[in-house]
Amino acid sequence: MKTATASWTRKHLLGLQELSAEEITMILDQAAEFQEMAARGEPKIDALSGTVVANLFFEPSTRTKMSFSLAAKRLSADTLDFTAAASSLSKGETFVDTARNIEAMGVDQVVVRHATSGAPLLLSKKLKASVINAGDGMHEHPTQALLDLFTIRQHRGSIAGLTVTLVGDILHSRVARSNIWALKKLGARVIVCGPSTLIPPHIEALGVEVSNSLDEVLSETDCINLLRIQFERQRSAFFPSIREYAHFFGMNGDRIRKAKKDVLILAPGPINRGVELTPDVADGNHSVILDQVTNGLLVRMAVLYLIHQRRQLSADEHPERSHQGTITGATT
Amino acid sequence: MKTATASWTRKHLLGLQELSAEEITMILDQAAEFQEMAARGEPKIDALSGTVVANLFFEPSTRTKMSFSLAAKRLSADTLDFTAAASSLSKGETFVDTARNIEAMGVDQVVVRHATSGAPLLLSKKLKASVINAGDGMHEHPTQALLDLFTIRQHRGSIAGLTVTLVGDILHSRVARSNIWALKKLGARVIVCGPSTLIPPHIEALGVEVSNSLDEVLSETDCINLLRIQFERQRSAFFPSIREYAHFFGMNGDRIRKAKKDVLILAPGPINRGVELTPDVADGNHSVILDQVTNGLLVRMAVLYLIHQRRQLSADEHPERSHQGTITGATT
Amino acid sequence: MKTATASWTRKHLLGLQELSAEEITMILDQAAEFQEMAARGEPKIDALSGTVVANLFFEPSTRTKMSFSLAAKRLSADTLDFTAAASSLSKGETFVDTARNIEAMGVDQVVVRHATSGAPLLLSKKLKASVINAGDGMHEHPTQALLDLFTIRQHRGSIAGLTVTLVGDILHSRVARSNIWALKKLGARVIVCGPSTLIPPHIEALGVEVSNSLDEVLSETDCINLLRIQFERQRSAFFPSIREYAHFFGMNGDRIRKAKKDVLILAPGPINRGVELTPDVADGNHSVILDQVTNGLLVRMAVLYLIHQRRQLSADEHPERSHQGTITGATT
């Protein structure tokens, strides 16, 4: 595993916007290595033994938290789980104090989800631990995009040259934002498609194309990523009805037949069957939705692993900075 | 451990109705082997290292979930815990999607509890993982019956020829149903005893005897299993009062004196002191209630272990079916 | 590690009142040994492998539970977490039954927090497992005081001869009580300081001095331990307002300047910034608040480790008492 880790230099994973194509590829390659090891019957390694990964979830989550937790265990880390009711950064001090206290228990990596964009960035400035963004407000959800890319690469060989269409609520979606950054860096053409109320103005500046008709772009698309409709948020304000949404933007058997023969259907889940896609599509040959879940474990292992390797190198160079060696008080 | 595992062939444990006497004995023997290993100071083995056991509990549970979770850890598996509010199978797709998503994280065995009878059977048809029933509606709770049998065998040497009386709410009890299947297969005489409103009609067809008087059957009984009265369900509809229930069907010092000298008192717990039994009985010489809890860990280890062994054999014969080797998409 | 463990003889840790100075020092020395091991890059040892530590929390807790859980994992124990809604000992049997049932799963050490003073003592009489008090009513919170002492010793070399002032709600504080016992035994001078409504009458009998003015004792104090104000309890009944409390008893920059040059600021947390102390003090050079959290892990590891060693010696001398060897039924 020397090759991949030799050049990973980041202490944190806050988003994909700041990563280079090479860095993104490094994570995907590391995930592929874990995939091969699992296939050889070596799903578990002891690389992170003796370290602690804390999951700090200030927003409800089931699967992302389970995925990170299992990824940490597969690497033999100990895990700490902290779940809080939604908490805004208007109580910023409390949020940072909570994180610092948990860090002080000897935590090496902090996985954080928060309703406020920028919360992981703030933590990264306040903690000695590494910070991994597990979704912050409408900003980014980098590991979700990484698993999307890994899944596409797994089925298509590479990303460059593909046309990927993100369908649905682009306006509020951190998944969309992380996907756009990463897909563009890796050379994909990206179309965002949804009702005009759910497309942010001037999004073309990110290098994407905009469409308000799924049928219009179907024949050009290699991969369709069906973002989740969040009923609690969108029902009334942004489009007339769920039924109308499903009619214009839901994937169904008809649209599959009009799409490219080898089109891939992705969805970050949990899916609303009958809304973003019909059951026959969800369970059909084009769907790679469960692959995404499987690959989520792999890319999260890769991120934890690469950051851990970088921390160790850094501790070797600057032993006085090593967590275990310094218990020096509450300095920032 | 070769002998026991050589002939275990089932991928799932859905109930005891479909098991042969030999299969039930195989589980009990394996549990006894784990008991001996613990007595030798080897409580932990690494048989399931690298595998993942998920606890999917769609009904509240404390002790069964803890017991399965600890059993998995004793075998060195990683564990994932998922707890959901009560959810009916009218939302069947959601239930299956939830399970499939968790399975896709690389889960080998799924322990499931659900308020709907048949939910584990449904999952077993939809997942590649093995499914273990931790209680489904009024259908079965196989590991509870297995720990009851293990405890009886531990104190009596064998099951055959004993008279076991199940007392209380037979109508709603999955514990009763699993006990009846297993006890009959292993050659016990089974009496079900309770108010007539709580005895299902035609239950004699299962090979059991019915009594509405505990005092009447006391002198013939070797083992009394006191089912839990669930106040929330039974208080009003099925019998006049808790006090009356305790008077007619509760075990107390008087009844112990009228019972066989070596009668065993079992209860699945959590017990209602003063209802199903008085404190002097719960804490007295005849009670094996805490043995049941200890043995619960052993039989659950045995079930997880035997199913794991069978999965490995099957993977060797059909390597392409191995979980780790196939990441092939969302096919059913 | 032979030296420290050779003479530890207690099966339980219920409070610091009953411990000798030598016993307290033994725990602190063991914690220091774990600190050195962590500094050498050996944060994890397998001393408790194969044993089970159960966290039974009958009162809400985040950080104490996480700290105990991680301490157990660092020692390679398996852990069981049980959290219940607040439950009074008026339901005493239920509380003991719950603990006994969890113990019966093969638990070696039970960490218990309960709103009723004396709950851990009661458990210690009912269980074969060792009981560690993680806070009971207004009685004691021994590991919190141990981590306070460890932190003071770390920064001052020893405890004897220091003046330690406990500030705030002495009346309701189990942290204050455990600190008083331990500090006096180790030779410190202890001042309790707060509004007269929050100082128990006759507390001088414990060997402490009483002050109702922080400013009065500031110049004589080496360590200030700022107890948490619990708004829900104290707001109305015991002092006029939070603002007034902060004015008279809060640590702020002014008071730091009037204090000894090397004064240490401790707080059990979670802190209320602007109440017990201002942010500049919380984050300043004198604060050792985050050290306390880090050290909490170490003293809890030490307690679990010493008690485990004692259990093993005892099992060697009396093998029939060993947990693994006896599955003998529900005797008390």
Structural class of chain A: alpha/beta
Strand order of the largest sheet of chain A: 7-6-5-8-9
CATH class wording of the largest domain in chain A: Alpha Beta
- Major sheet summary line of chain A: 5 strands, parallel
Mean pLDDT of chain A: 89
Radius of gyration of chain A: 20 Å
Could you please describe the fold and organization of this structure?
The structure is a homotrimer. The first copy, chain A, is an alpha/beta fold. Chain A folds into 2 domains: about 1-140 and about 295-325, Aspartate/ornithine carbamoyltransferase (Rossmann fold); about 140-290, Rossmann fold (3-Layer(aba) Sandwich). Helix content of chain A is about 40%, strand content about 15%. In chain A, the strands form 2 sheets. A 5-stranded parallel beta sheet of chain A has the order 7-6-5-8-9. Chain A has a 4-stranded parallel beta sheet with strand order 2-1-3-4, with helices on both faces. In chain A, strand 1 (about 50-55), helix 3 and strand 2 form a beta-alpha-beta unit. In chain A, helix 2 packs across helix 6. Chain A starts with a helix and ends in a 15-residue tail after the last helix. At the A-B interface, helix 2, helix 3 and helix 13 of A face strand 2 and helix 4 of B.
How would you summarize this macromolecular structure in one to three sentences?
By secondary structure, chain A is of the alpha/beta class. Chain A has 13 helices and 9 strands.
Task: Lay out the secondary structure.
The structure is a homotrimer of 332-residue chains.
Chain A lengths: L1 H5 L14 H19 L12 E6 L5 H12 L3 E6 L8 H13 L4 E6 L4 H8 L3 E7 L5 H15 L6 E5 L6 H12 L3 E5 L15 E3 L2 H4 L5 E4 L4 H4 L7 H8 L3 H6 L5 E3 L12 H4 L6 H29 L15
Parallel strand pairs in A: 1-2, 1-3, 3-4, 5-6, 5-8, 6-7, 8-9
Helix pairs in contact in A: 2-6, 2-13, 3-13, 6-7, 6-13
